[in-house]
Amino acid sequence: MLGSWKGASFPTDHPLDGVLEAYHWHGKRLDDAEHVQPLVFKTMSGGTTSIDPVWMLPIVRWLDRLPIPKSEAVGRVFQMALPLFATNRSCARLRLTNYRGKESATMIYDALPINDIFRKVDANTVFSVMDLKGMEQPFFFMLQRE
């Protein structure tokens, strides 16, 4: 799991389907088990930057109650604001956990009740589930090794 990964939603009619892409989500970066960047976004200059997921708390709290705008304009405004939320600090860690009866690599967020569970598809692809405490349905996404 170590390294940089490019992400994409796996459509299931979840409220987050397409949201991360609209906000220019790039993927995740796992430097080692203790140093993980769960939210890496594309910058306007074409690079990437990591943000601290704690800034997403207001969105997470309303996820099941209100639709999240997915317009290109809102995504661009978010992208312009990325420097306000950027961090070089690790915001999660990686552990092995048991999820639905199978040992799985799991990203445990430091400041939010979120676990991202990863299951290997092949050497360069993982199928992933974002498990948020209190959310009715998990969010599914794919990661491709860069």
UniProtKB/TrEMBL annotation:
Domain DUF4334 stretches: 92-145
Q: Which residues cross the membrane?
A: none
Cited InterPro entries: DUF4334, GXWXG_dom
The chain positions of domain GXWXG read: 1-46
Instruction: List the protein's name.
Output: DUF4334 domain-containing protein
What's the source species for this entry?
Stenomitos frigidus ULC18
